[in-house]
Amino acid sequence: MSNILALDTSTENCSAALSINGEVLVREFVSPREHTKRILPMVDSLLSEAGIKLTDLDALAFGRGPGSFTGVRIGTGIAQGLAFGADLPMLPVSTLAIMAQGAHRLHNATDVLPAIDARMGEIYFAQYQLNDAGIMTLVGNEMVITAAELVANYNQPEREFYTLGTGWETYAEQLAGLNVSQLTACEGIQFPISHDMIAIATADFANGKAVAVEDAMPVYVRDTVTWKKLPGRE
């Protein structure tokens, strides 16, 4: 069992989690403008509770985006600094994947449409499906898109999905028209939390997906193509 520290500051929620000897310890706090003040004390608290040092870990995972540009940069920079100082490999994890994994953990969901409010009338959106190993896997591409564009171009009429995130909360009325069989809201999941990053990071580490500090980059998504890559669109 790998020992992994995970941290995320990509949205209003600030969180850290530590997987040590199969046990997961968690710290989180909704603090939109205090991430730089809160994340390192969270890390210190986790390490202290577990009675270990950073150098005792196998890897460091972080929420690489999408999300708030400032938040993603903060999380990436702090994670890189910690990993560099402890000579640890890094595991960049999508914030949308983290949310999807949370839907499985809390609601046993297998098909999920996470969405984060991207401001400027847009959402960060993706489709995830549970694989045989119990890990949420991306279907298609992550994207930034308006609710109207998504409704006009998304085509999965025979599929049922769980929904979660601030994107669904902000644009609930528009997104209710999505062309799917059924939408079920996941209560209690607005933001990604590091607890759910652990499962993905552990699987990625076991599959050799860890990268060096200099290769651990944030992902902002806004530069990608949107509706042309939607699942179900030819």
UniProtKB/TrEMBL annotation:
<dbReference type="InterPro" id="IPR043129">
    <property type="entry name" value="ATPase_NBD"/>
</dbReference>
<dbReference type="Pfam" id="PF00814">
    <property type="entry name" value="TsaD"/>
</dbReference>
<feature type="domain" description="Gcp-like">
    <location>
        <begin position="32"/>
        <end position="160"/>
    </location>
</feature>
<keyword id="KW-0963">Cytoplasm</keyword>
<dbReference type="InterPro" id="IPR022496">
    <property type="entry name" value="T6A_TsaB"/>
</dbReference>
<dbReference type="GO" id="GO:0002949">
    <property type="term" value="P:tRNA threonylcarbamoyladenosine modification"/>
</dbReference>
<dbReference type="GO" id="GO:0005829">
    <property type="term" value="C:cytosol"/>
</dbReference>
<comment type="similarity">
    <text>Belongs to the KAE1 / TsaD family. TsaB subfamily.</text>
</comment>
<dbReference type="InterPro" id="IPR000905">
    <property type="entry name" value="Gcp-like_dom"/>
</dbReference>
<protein>
    <recommendedName>
        <fullName>tRNA threonylcarbamoyladenosine biosynthesis protein TsaB</fullName>
    </recommendedName>
</protein>
<keyword id="KW-0819">tRNA processing</keyword>
